[in-house]
Amino acid sequence: MTTRRRRKPSTAKDEDNPLELIYEILGNPNKRRIIEFIGNYGRVSFTQLRRSLKMSVGNLYYNLDHLKGLVYQCEDKKYALTEEGKKVYKVLIEESRRLNYIMREKNPVYSFYHKYLEPILLPE
To answer: What is the predicted pLDDT for the residue at 87?
Structure first.
């Protein structure tokens, strides 16, 4: 029987490069949604997270475990963002706005991409 090697949870302190942490969160929809939800609502309970994000208990605990250093549990058992987590949340929101702007059809960058780059990158 093979055993799975469990990935070490990401923490803000462990990361040599803060960009790696942001890319890891951007690449994981569950982590991204957790950071965004807590950032939008402030302190939230586990039940609020689970119901709003429609995640299983195990999946939510797993992802919260990997967000140590960015998310912490308060004395009242609610979850909140650490100072580092607030910075990551701000970056996620700003980048989301930037990407939405770039990908709008009337944007010149989108037009250039759609007209010239898309046929090369995504040929039919």
So the answer is: 93
Instruction: Name 44's bridge partners.
Output: 79
- pLDDT of amino acid 105: 65
The answer to whether residue 51 sits within a structural domain is yes
The rounded distance, in Å, linking the Cα atoms of 121 and 113 is 10
**CA-CA distances (angstroms) from residue 124 to 29, 78, 116, 121?**
28, 49, 14, 10
List 68's β-bridge partners, or say none: 71
What CATH number is attached to the domain comprising 75? 1.10.10.10
Tell me the whole-structure pTM to 2 decimals. Answer: 0.69
State how many domains the chain has: 1
